[in-house]
């Protein structure tokens, strides 16, 4: 436990962290990777390059400082990050390395303003915060390894099928190489895939939402090809599309994630997605159809046009069921899309459309997609009076803020 003086010192640094947080976390990663380049085998290089990880860490440090006397308040954030850590393979021995370099970065950026008293207080605070993460993650590691079909770390899976779903999205059906059972998962969760790419010094780990219902003898992920191979995300997705074939072996972590469908409820569900954000929505849709056949579900998907619209046929087939309704939005439809009536609405998902077409008062809303899409959906739902506890969303990569 932290004493009152330490708590007061930490809280006094909140304004400084608000102003200099990203500068500190950027310097932190520079120092840590400079001294421990082996950690580049774990961290997402694309998120580093784009500044997403630095921004997310700055937000976490800021929140920890603000609630240092009530860490229970940020427990949901801790659990969410812990899911990512467990999926990536972050272990207790990594935390002292992180703590050492975070304190060095604070000292480096703030200079004389970072007094010995402040550095000492942050050292004590970091130890408490790290213990919270380590404790939560230990439970998650134990659960992942000891559940039926579960495992620790990364397990070899064979690409059983590879299906081109659109011009930019391909699905990979993964089956365990050892032919033993696989862990069940909750719709909305993801797996991590660890890749060793020829010519690359470090391994790359990427997390992909599972795009089929649980209970199968395979996992399915549907991966979007990112433009260009110069950026790390493009390099990884292009490698999967072009370099991974049926019969190849991939290293896969057990399912993780806290953006999940609540199957204990029977309220109407609205699933909204943009682009490849439809992957967790597909798992949720197929699960509702399989185990909650009386539950009303509306599937809303936004894409540029039919050329990039993946898994369309699966949704159309399910939409023949009495409890399923679907709508497709295309903002740049092709002439072929128009001729074949492939979409329902031209343009973007708007607040007015949501109000007119959906059951706003009693539904639970789940959404995922590009950040601008999610910001627009979140803002519209709040303006329409949907309570926050009925709004659920997932970010690809580090958690962001939809209210920025």
Automatic annotation (TrEMBL):
Entry keyword set: Detoxification, FAD, Flavoprotein, Heme, Iron, Metal-binding, NAD, NADP, Oxidoreductase, Oxygen transport, Transport
Residues annotated as the enzyme's active site: 95, 137
Transmembrane segments: none
Positions contributing to heme b binding: 85
Globin domain ranges (all copies): 1-138
Ranges for domain FAD-binding FR-type: 152-262
Annotated cofactor note: Binds 1 heme b (iron(II)-protoporphyrin IX) group per subunit. Binds 1 FAD per subunit.
Stretches for region Reductase: 149-404
Alphabetized PROSITE patterns for the sequence: FAD_FR, GLOBIN
EC number(s) on file: 1.14.12.17
Chain positions of site Involved in heme-bound ligand stabilization and O-O bond activation: 29
Feature type site, description Influences the redox potential of the prosthetic heme and FAD groups: 84, 394
Cofactor list: heme b; FAD
GO MF assignments: nitric oxide dioxygenase NAD(P)H activity
Residues noted as binding NADP(+) in the record, renumbered to the chain: 275-280
Function of the protein: Is involved in NO detoxification in an aerobic process, termed nitric oxide dioxygenase (NOD) reaction that utilizes O(2) and NAD(P)H to convert NO to nitrate, which protects the bacterium from various noxious nitrogen compounds. Therefore, plays a central role in the inducible response to nitrosative stress.
UniProt note: domains: Consists of two distinct domains; an N-terminal heme-containing oxygen-binding domain and a C-terminal reductase domain with binding sites for FAD and NAD(P)H.
Name of the protein in question: Flavohemoprotein
């Amino acid at each position: 436990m932290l004493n009152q003086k330490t708590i007061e010192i930490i809280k006094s640094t909140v304004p400084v962290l608000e102003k200099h947080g990203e500068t500190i976390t950027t310097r932190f990663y520079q120092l840590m990777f400079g001294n421990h380049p082996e950690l580049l085998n774990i961290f997402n290089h694309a998120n580093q390059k784009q500044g997403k990880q630095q921004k997310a860490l700055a937000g976490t440090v800021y929140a920890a400082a603000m609630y240092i006397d009530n860490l229970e308040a940020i427990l949901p954030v801790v659990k969410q990050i812990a899911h990512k850590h467990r999926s990536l393979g972050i272990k207790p021995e990594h935390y002292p390395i992180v703590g050492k370099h975070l304190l060095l970065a604070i000292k480096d950026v703030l200079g004389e303003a970072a007094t010995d008293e402040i550095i000492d207080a942050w050292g004590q605070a970091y130890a408490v915060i790290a213990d919270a993460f380590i404790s939560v993650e230990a439970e998650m590691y134990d659960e992942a390894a000891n559940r039926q079909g579960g495992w620790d770390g990364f397990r070899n899976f064979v690409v059983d099928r590879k299906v081109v779903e659109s011009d930019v999205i391909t699905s990979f059906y993964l089956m365990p190489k050892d032919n033993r059972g696989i862990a069940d998962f909750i719709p909305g969760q993801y797996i991590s895939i660890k890749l060793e790419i020829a010519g690359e010094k470090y391994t790359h780990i990427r997390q992909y939402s599972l795009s089929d219902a649980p209970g199968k003898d395979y996992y399915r992920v549907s991966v979007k090809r990112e433009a260009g191979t110069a950026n790390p995300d493009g390099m990884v997705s292009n490698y999967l599309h072009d370099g991974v074939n049926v019969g190849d072996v991939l290293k896969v972590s057990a399912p993780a994630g806290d953006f999940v469908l609540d199957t204990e409820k029977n309220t109407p569900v609205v699933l909204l997605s943009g682009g490849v954000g439809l992957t967790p929505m597909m798992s949720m849709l197929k699960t509702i159809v399989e185990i909650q056949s009386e539950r009303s579900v509306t599937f809303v998907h936004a894409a540029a046009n039919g050329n990039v619209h993946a898994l369309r046929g699966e949704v159309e087939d399910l939409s023949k069921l009495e409890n399923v309704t679907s709508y497709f939005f295309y903002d740049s439809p092709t002439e072929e899309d128009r001729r074949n009536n492939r979409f329902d609405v031209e343009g973007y998902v708007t607040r007015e459309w949501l109000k007119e077409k959906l059951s706003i008062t009693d539904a639970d809303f789940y959404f995922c997609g590009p950040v601008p899409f999610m910001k627009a959906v979140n803002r519209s739902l709040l303006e329409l009076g949907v309570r926050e506890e009925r709004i659920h969303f997932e970010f690809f990569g580090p958690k962001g803020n939809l209210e920025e």
